[in-house]
Structures are given as C-alpha cells and as structure tokens.
Amino acid sequence: MKKILYISSEAFPLIKTGGLGDVAGSLPPALLKLGLDVRLLLPAYPDVIKNIKQSKIRGQCSYYNQTVNIIETRMPGTKLTVWLIDCPAVFDRPGGPYTDHHGEDWHDNAFRFSIFCHAAVDIALNKLSLDWQPDIVHCNDWQTGLVPALLSLQPVRPASIFTIHNLAYQGVFDQQTFTDLKLPEQLWSMEGLEFYNQLSFIKGGLVYADKINTVSPNYAREILQQNFGYGLDGLLNKRKDDLSGILNGIDHKHWNPGSDNLIAHKYNRHSLAKKSLNKTALQQQLELPVDENIPMLGMVSRLVEQKGLPIIVQNLTALLKMPLQIVILGTGETHYEIELSGWAQKHPQQMKVIIGYSEELAHKIEAASDIYLMPSNFEPCGLNQLYSLRYGTLPVVTNVGGLADTVNTVSESTTEIDHADGFMVKQPSAAALLQTLKFALKLYQNRASWRQLQLNAMSKDFSWQSSATHYLHLYQQALQKK
Ligand code: ADP
Ligand code: GLC
To answer: What are the structural domains of the chain?
Structure first.
C-alpha cells in the first residue's frame, strides 16, 4: 500500500479560509478509500485544537530554537490520521492562518511556514520516530513550497507532488529572509528559490517537485501564458512535461441539498419544488421582502478582484433597477467590504451583504439563490460553481480556468438547453456580465426551461472518486520519474 504524506496549511472542518481547505479536507479521505495509507499534516492553529477530540503527542523536534510537538489526531468523521505541527510561538495566536484581525499578512509568515516545512521534511524522511516512511509527499500551495526544495538535497527521499491551487499567491519575501531562515546556499539561484532577487516559496514546489499539477485542466494550460502566469510562465513552460490538471471534486457529505442539515428545507432532483422554501426562509432571516418568485442572485466569496468584484460593482446601479434580490456573503479587501455594504444599506429591500465567515449561511445562500455570481478574472478550479450546480442554483461564470471546464453554457443564439446548466459571460467586462445576467433573468421567467437547466445541473457528478483516481495515477508517474 502506497504511503502519502499530504501537506496543507488548511483543511475543513478543522480550519478553512477557502477552497484549499475544502480540497485538503476531502481529497485525503477519498484517497484513503482507494486503499492508500494517507496522513495529513497541518499547523496546529488554535481553531484546529478547538475542533479536535482526542489527541496525543507523538514526537518532538526543534527548529530555529523553537520547540515543536507533533500531535496526532483524527479528522472528525473519517479514519484519516492527522499530524499537527504544534509550535506555539508561531501558530498559537488569535487571527487567521495567514493574516491578523485586520486582514494583514502575519509579519513572520516566512518563518512560520519555514518551520512547518522543516517539520514536514523530517517526517517525510522518517526522522521523528513516527515509524512511518511515505513514498510520496503531496504539497499544496506556497506555504508548503520549501518541502520539495529541501527534499531535493537528500540522497534518498520520497517522490514529491506540488499542487497549485492559486498561482497568484506565491509567498515572496526579501533576500534577507533567505539568509535569516538559514536555507541551504545551493537553493539560491534563478534556477532555484530566487525570483528577481527575492525568495519565492512557490518556486520551491515548481522547480523541485517531481510532478506539478493544478486543479483544472484548463488552468494548467492557461498558466503557460503570460497573462495567467504571474511571472512564472517561463518556468512552467520548462516543466510542461511534468505539469497536468486534475479537476477538484466536491464532498457530498457536506454539500448535498438532499441531506444538508444547515439548510431550512432539504430537497433533491425529485423534490425541486422545495428549493424555493429555502429562498423564503432566507428572505425572512435577512429581512428581505418574502417572495418566492423574485429571482435571487447569490454569492459566497473572498471579496477580492479575482472573483470579479469590479464588474459586479459596476453593474449594481443597473441591476438594482430590476425586480431581483442580491445576497452576498464574504470577507476580503476592505474597500469592497465597505462599498458593497454601502449599496446594501441604500437598497435594504433588494440587497443584503454579510461581511464575515459563516459556513451555515454559505449553505443557506447556495440553497436559496436562483443564480450564483462567479464572474472571476481567473479561477484555478472554483468550488462554489460546483456547489451551485449541485444545489440547482445556476452559475453565471466567465470563460476561464475551472469555470470553463465545469459549466455548460446556454447559448443565447439557439437557447439550446439540452445539456446546459449555467451561463457563460463571453468577456470579463461589466457590459458582457450585464448582458448575460439579463439573458439569464429572462430565461428565469420560462419556468419549464429553467427547471430543465436545474435538473441538468443537479445531475452532474463531481464526486471526489474520479479525481482521486487521477491523483493515484499522478503518484505513480511521480514515483517512476524519481
Ligand atoms: P477560493 O478558494 O478561490 O476562495 P473556491 O470557490 O475554490 O474559491 O472555494 C471557496 C470556498 O470557501 C467555498 O467552500 C466557499 O463556500 C467558502 N467561502 C468563501 N468565503 C466564505 C465566507 N465568507 N463564509 C463561508 N464560506 C466561505
Ligand atoms: C484556490 C482557487 C480556487 C480553487 C481552490 C481549491 O483558492 O482560487 O479556484 O477551487 O484553490 O483548489
């Protein structure tokens, strides 16, 4: 049985800020079901400690004079063993995994995730008396980027995989940080961790991992181009033969309208009429006029440019003149939080904006809305459009990344709906978004067509099983390569 050390900076339900949390919480259990021996490695943030039941200390080590305990626990509701890197000096503090209460990056992020990576490397080399030697280490995003780099210096080592969930976040720090972290000199070069005289954590993954993948086939192609490559397209082109795309799945245990305990009324394809009860329940909860026939546009998102906030905001004047309601839940850049909240205050009968993080409200919005807004600039995979499809909430998406791979658009010219399940905005412009939304709202009035689109959406299968099998093949390729 192959042994996989899955390394992530977040994993639901222990800790989550976005889609990486969803993936790291559901892919490892899916791999376990395929018969692999998987262990998940996470930092021991206070929220994680709060969310675990039983635990024991399995080992101790020290980096940069900081003591680190390895705590063993289980992922709630699964058989997955989780090892927590418990270093109170860097992980035991109030705030988020990456940012403080004001949304500013922790000043010592390089130090925090360097400790995490050093501990991961020692576990990967079975140096911490855990009596377990992985065949593969599977790293995710920049926070884990030093692992493949440090492992590459070892004469005997496991194979490594690096998954890019978002190339825009790279973990770049000044050159002095490289010195302060006492990283091996041979890693400092243009062909190594150096990125225009700075230290790049993500390059550790992109340069040194045996295989690299992204979370959708389309994004794997896009990042080879300058406009999606964030300065790393040259390197990625060099590594093209080792780069692939595997679409994320969704966890049907948590995201299934038929069994979702967080929503007011459960429903499925055969009881679709009950979906609108979720709309009226949310309208009551948020003090919006209760009307099951008014179209509701929903969004649950990080409030950042990536998610198409500029073109949404530009269309609010036009949209709020139409008979519709808008519900947005999110946190992110302060100016978007203020701007959206301002619009909601001015239009309390039509628009609600909830600034904050709420798993419960996220599910309620998915179940209540008719249309889901996701006109992203770029989208490595995107999970919310997948949840929306599952909940019969038709997504309005741009033609990028995983959105293009997962949504079948209704063609405006033919209004062909045989296989369609959403709406594609042709260009990422405010005018194009408005045009698509107007078309969607018109189609909403045709109940039979809308219902057909919903049934198409809800029949789609994005379960983890197929994606996990693709990862199994990638692991085999990585072992062969090494
Ligand atoms: P990304 O990872 O780029 O943020 P994804 O679509 O892959 O985008 O995943 C986002 C995940 O985070 C989804 O599960 C979504 O429901 C969740 N999410 C984002 N913002 C919030 C919020 N404010 N409250 C609750 N869940 C949120
Ligand atoms: C990132 C991406 C998102 C993806 C998620 C999980 O946060 O922005 O598109 O779905 O990671 O892979």
So the answer is: 3-249+464-481 (3.40.50.2000), 269-458 (3.40.50.2000)
